[in-house]
Amino acid sequence: GAVVSQHPSWVICKSGTSVKIECRSLDFQATTMFWYRQFPKQSLMLMATSNEGSKATYEQGVEKDKFLINHASLTLSTLTVTSAHPEDSSFYICSATGQGRSPLHFGNGTRLTVT
Amino acid sequence: QKEVEQNSGPLSVPEGAIASLNCTYSDRGSQSFFWYRQYSGKSPELIMFIYSNGDKEDGRFTAQLNKASQYVSLLIRDSQPSDSATYLCAVTRTGNQFYFGTGTSLTVIP
After folding, report:
1. CA gap A47, A29 in Å, rounded
2. Which of chain B's residues have a Cβ under 8 Å away from the Cβ of A104?
3. Which H, E and C letters describe A29-45, residue by residue?
4. What single string gives the DSSP state of each residue in A39-103?
5. Residue A114's pLDDT band (boundaries 50, 70, 90)?
6. CB atoms < 10 A from the CB of B79, how many?
7. Which of A51, A43, A37 is CA-nearest to residue A98?
8. CA A83 to CA B26: how far, in whole Å?
């Protein structure tokens, strides 16, 4: 089946630093990628939608200057958490889908801890 | 009205029983329907997708779609403790916008 690779799987950083998370579709062309965050025992929360070569569309309440998304190719999207703070600590999950009625495939997620 | 609604549960079934998970959606124009399983602390994984009315079977899993009544369900036969997870229903219309329910927590009791 379709594979989405996400790295790193976990990261610990100091407050004020930036963290980049990579998401790659390994065996299909991802026309659209989505970034979610999830707090413990809560539902997935969509942060933004990105299409290759276009600016990401952010959900209401998500700061685009804090969560920078780049979708430079049909197989790679990155999320950079800038000037991270402890409240940004969460589980970040990328997902990707191809054309037509393709399902959404998820990466394994990145657990971010900001100290 | 939410796009996709699921009973949050928790749903508990004994090992070997059939677990039935239900999902309703609001937009009659919805075209594609997906079930995901999410273990605690992990990301969701795709279990099944269904596009047409009726049943679709894959091993112990059966997805059922009824567009007239706007619901989609997932049946898990011979439930195992390893099936204990949160099950997410997702729906798309045209384009690539996925709408997720909040998930149903399933516990299979040995």
Report:
1. 21
2. 34, 46, 90, 98
3. CCCEEEEEEECCCCCCE
4. -TTS--EEEEEEETTSPPEEPTT--TTTEEEEEEETTEEEEEE-S--GGG-EEEEEEEE-STTPP
5. very high
6. 21
7. A51
8. 39
**Residue A82, both tokens:** 């800038």
- Model confidence band, residue B93 (pLDDT cutoffs 50, 70, 90): confident
Contact A111, A8 (CB under 8 A): no
What pLDDT digit, counting tens, does each position of B32-66 carry?
A: 999 999 999 999 999 999 999 999 999 999 999 99
Nearest residue in A to B96, CA atom: A32
Task: State which amino acid sits at residue A80.
Answer: T
Give me the residue label for tokens 């594979």: A3
Q: Is A86 left (phi over 0), alpha (psi -120 to 50) or beta?
A: alpha
The label of the residue with tokens 């679709």 reads: B56
Q: Give the mutation candidate from B6, B43, B48, B104 for the A interface (greatest A CB count, under 10 A).
A: B43
Task: Work out how many CB contacts closer than 8 A connect A with B.
Answer: 41
CB A102 within 8 A of CB A1: no
